[in-house]
Structures are given as C-alpha cells and as structure tokens.
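User: quick one, sequence for these tokens?
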C-alpha cells in the first residue's frame, strides 16, 4: 500500500513560511534517545532472514520514535498542507498495512480493515482526529498488528512461504519483508517532515 499526498497545481510558487514555525533542531544535537540506549539494531547480521527482520524492526521503531512525546493534537496535526497526512494517520495507516499483508494475504485470515472501507478509502488518515482515545486505540491496533506479523515471520518455515493477494497474485515472504521495509522507510520520510513542522525535531 502507498499513500497519495495531495499537491498544488505545480505553479512553482513557494509557500510562505510562518514566523511561528518551530525552530529547526539538528538531530544529533537533540536526539530522541541517546545512542547508547537506542533500541534499534546497529550490528552486522549473519543471515538473510535476520537482515530483513532487523531492518524492518528498525523501521517500525523509527516510526514509533517519531511519534514519541507528542499529545493528541500534535499527533493529529496535518502539518504539511495540503497533504492530509499526520503522524496519527501514519500509525493508523501502518496498522492497516500490517494487517492486510500479514493477516489477510499471508495467513489467509478473514480480517476486515480497521479504518478503511469502500465509502471511506482514506479512513485511516481522515479519521485521525485529536482525541486521546483515538490515539490510544491507534497505538494498540498498530502494536497488535506488528506483534502478529513478527510472530508469523518467526514461525514461518522459510522465506519462500507464500500468500495470495486480493487479485490472485502470489507473494513470497522474502519479497513482502523487503516491501514492508520500503513502505516504512517511505513513510518515515514523511514522518520526518511532519515532526519537524510540529516542534523542530529532526533526524535520527
């Protein structure tokens, strides 16, 4: 899954940067967590499965770090208009992505979408409102889907395990893990901009 960001007509006009925009803070001078305490992997890996699992884990943790220490209003803020993206929307979106790929496609479960529907295809983003209960529910949903995905991968016989997509195409676990790394990395780039516009935090 990918997320389309709305854009302007391409007139070339530069947006006005408000004087009230947060002061930019260089990432290494104000890290989210000290490098000694960073939970993300930093070493070499012995085999292909470990490489893919650890790189995906790192990307998931990066999204989590980007959302740390923010209240409901900040998480729901669409801080890079005209895009409808928010950090809360990204959490909800990635819960849907994890659920779709690992529960429905790989495990073959009857697991309907959490937020999206034919009537509300962008319900993950559109429903990301500044409500602490919505934030808590989104975090619980995302963590539950990540836990299921991690368990599925750990229990898979090998990386050639396959699942059938909605249109009948087959995808093997190896390809899916690479795709998920790509999906998170793309959205973590979005999260960088969203977070910087909220409070100036960048990097790491």
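Assistant:
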């Amino acid at each position: 899954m990918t997320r389309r960001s709305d854009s302007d007509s391409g007139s070339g006009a530069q947006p006005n940067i408000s004087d009230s925009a947060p002061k930019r803070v260089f990432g290494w001078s104000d890290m989210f967590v000290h490098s000694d305490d960073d939970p993300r992997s930093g070493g070499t890996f012995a085999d292909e499965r470990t490489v893919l699992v650890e790189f995906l884990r790192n990307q998931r943790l990066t999204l989590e770090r980007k959302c740390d220490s923010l209240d409901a209003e900040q998480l729901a803020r669409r801080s890079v208009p005209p895009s409808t993206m928010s950090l809360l929307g990204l959490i909800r979106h990635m819960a849907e992505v994890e659920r779709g790929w690992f529960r429905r496609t790989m495990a073959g479960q009857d697991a309907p979408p959490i937020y999206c529907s034919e009537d509300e295809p962008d319900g993950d983003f559109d429903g990301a409102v500044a409500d602490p209960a919505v934030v808590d529910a989104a975090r619980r949903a995302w963590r539950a889907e990540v836990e299921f995905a991690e368990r599925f991968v750990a229990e898979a016989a090998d990386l050639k395990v396959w699942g059938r997509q909605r249109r009948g195409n087959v995808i093997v676990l190896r390809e899916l893990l690479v795709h998920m790394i790509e999906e998170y990395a793309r959205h973590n780039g979005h999260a960088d901009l969203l977070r910087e516009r909220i409070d100036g935090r960048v990097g790491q």
